[in-house]
Write a structure and sequence with these properties.
Elements: E1 6-10, E2 14-20, H1 26-29, H2 32-37, H3 41-44, E3 48-55, H4 59-70, H5 76-85, E4 94-97, H6 101-110, E5 114-117, H7 123-139, H8 147-163, H9 173-201, H10 207-210, H11 214-224, H12 235-241, H13 246-257, H14 266-300, H15 302-308, H16 310-320, H17 323-328, H18 331-335, H19 340-349, H20 363-367, H21 373-393, H22 400-418, H23 425-438, H24 469-509
Length: about 500
């Protein structure tokens, strides 16, 4: 086993380099006495000595250094500390104990004369680093009691915030979760409503044909209960459940009087009413969740939601993974987003690729003629891509561009149907920007990202003078002479070469 020469300790207050004066072997580490010696500062202090301590400059520098250590990269600050304090010999390498294996690889790549050992490759390094971490507040010079604990707490909070940093007001993760829950609720509500119809249909089968809506049927089952107790006194309350439809309420009362359903015990009716109440609450929660999704989309992606609707826009964001990913997609990818299986199947069988994916659920494609569905889906994907980029890179949410883009799609549908020529995109977007500025809203343009003007040289461009006919003729004649001279030169060279070959043959024959 190679002896450990130095140790690198990445503390919350800075980098520390220790020189190993005395170390135990691997066999001795398994003894209780040797293991207890690492916990005693008087004994462990004789095993290592502090060579250099490089504290952080400030809190921002500490966060940057720890972030680089977590990524396995060596900073210039650490590089200079190793160069100044660890001697490098050409014949024999210096062994350095490091806690992180990725950082050890970076140090080994920069310093060929340093051999790095980690806790995974050497038990001695793991034991020594464990002792350094235990006694670091007393081994590091210039620290008072409690300094390292406070530094660890502050740096831990800063590092965690940097890892999970996000904008509270524009967070598309909530949209992704909300649309996923909404889809699950739709499936659950449909399934549970069908079970209520099947269960309560044994007692009141005529209600199935009168109340077709799931929520209305569940409310009626919860209100009616035993059909024998339903009479004319409940007419007004029934009308309120069926949206003030008196004819339907009277039909329910009449059907209850002549119903062919079987009688149900009180216990069974109690379970049916409980289950119907759960379904009603689930449907009401689904409505509140949809309202939350609409409100969230108006903050995160208002233009995209105005163009194709909140649900379709939320599904596009969910499929892409985030609004930023959706903004990076080209319009051709957005057009078939959600139809990946059909696309791969078409590529495998060399058949026609799909024309649309999730945007098929938009109302525009349903209103277009069968022959125009492919064209309108391509046009709609183009406008949706523009809307997603505006939403992603703008700081102040506004629906002005979404309304304009929706109007453009409407005009394109009219153009396909009647042939009326729509306005140009540049004119329409220019009007939208002018209206937005007229209302007092700024465009929130990042001036640092604007391309700077080209450097002016100060010289005015020279005007090209028209060339005379004589000059053109002279240049043509010069070109012809050059070509003739080149051709003659090559011919003369070939002739001279043939003459030389003939002379050589004569001399060889003689």
């Amino acid at each position: 086993m190679a002896s450990i020469d130095y140790l690198l300790h990445e503390a919350a207050v800075g980098y520390a380099i220790f020189k190993v004066v005395h170390q135990q072997n691997v066999v001795a580490l398994h003894q209780k006495e040797v293991a207890a010696a690492s916990a005693d500062l008087s004994k462990f202090g004789k095993m290592v000595t502090l060579v250099h301590f490089a504290p952080w400059r400030n809190a921002a520098d500490a966060l940057e250094q720890i972030h680089m250590v977590s990524e396995g990269m060596m900073s210039d600050y650490l590089k200079s500390a190793i160069e100044l304090n660890i001697p490098q010999a050409k014949k024999q390498k210096v062994v350095l104990g490091v806690a992180d294996k990725n950082l050890a690889g970076s140090i080994r790549a920069v310093f060929p004369g340093v051999e790095c050992e980690t806790g995974d490759t050497s038990e001695v390094v793991a034991d020594l680093l464990r002792g350094v971490r235990l006694h670091a507040p007393k081994l590091l010079k210039g620290l008072t009691e409690g300094d390292e604990e406070r530094a660890q707490l502050g740096l831990g909070h800063a590092f965690s915030r940097a890892k999970v940093k996000f904008n509270v007001h524009k967070n598309d993760n909530h949209i992704i979760r909300a649309i996923a829950v909404l889809d699950s609720l739709d499936k659950g509500v449909n399934l549970f409503s069908q079970k209520v119809r099947e269960w309560y249909g044994w007692h009141f089968p005529e209600l199935y044909a009168i109340a077709s809506d799931n929520l209305t049927y569940a409310k009626l089952a919860l209100f009616i209960g035993d059909k024998t107790t339903l009479g004319d006194k409940d007419f007004h309350e029934l009308a309120g459940i069926v949206n003030e439809d008196e004819e339907k309420a009277q039909a329910i009362v009449d059907a209850a009087k002549i119903s062919m359903g079987r009688d149900i015990s009180d216990v069974d009716m109690t379970n049916i009413e409980t289950f119907s109440g759960k379904v009603v609450k689930l449907v009401e929660y689904r409505r509140s969740l949809y309202s939350y999704l609409v409100e969230k989309m108006s903050t995160v992606a208002p233009n995209l939601a105005t163009l194709i609707g909140e649900v379709v826009a939320a599904r596009l964001i969910q499929k892409a993974g985030s609004l930023t990913n959706l903004a990076k997609y080209p319009a051709s990818t957005l057009q078939i987003l959600g139809a990946e299986k059909a696309l791969f199947r078409a590529l495998k069988t060399k058949s026609n690729t799909p024309k649309f994916g999730l945007i098929y659920h938009s109302s525009f494609i349903g209103r277009a003629a069968q022959k125009d569905k492919g064209r309108i889906s391509r046009y709609l994907a183009n406008k949706a891509s523009i809307a997603s980029r505006i939403d992603n890179f703008s700081e102040h949410p506004s629906t002005k561009f979404g309304e304009v883009l929706r109007g453009q799609v409407e005009d394109r549908l009219e153009f396909y149907a009647t042939g009326k020529k729509p306005e140009k995109n540049a004119d329409v977007m220019g009007k939208a920007m002018a209206d937005l500025l007229a209302e007092g809203d700024d465009m929130a343009i990042d001036t640092e990202m604007i391309d700077g003007p080209l450097p002016s040289t100060g010289d005015t461009p020279k005007e090209k003078k028209p060339k005379d006919k004589k000059e053109k003729k002279d240049k043509k004649e010069e070109k012809k002479k050059r070509r003739h001279s080149e051709v003659n030169g090559t011919i003369d060279a070939e002739v001279d070469g043939e003459k030389k070959k003939k002379k050589k043959k004569r001399h060889s024959e003689a």
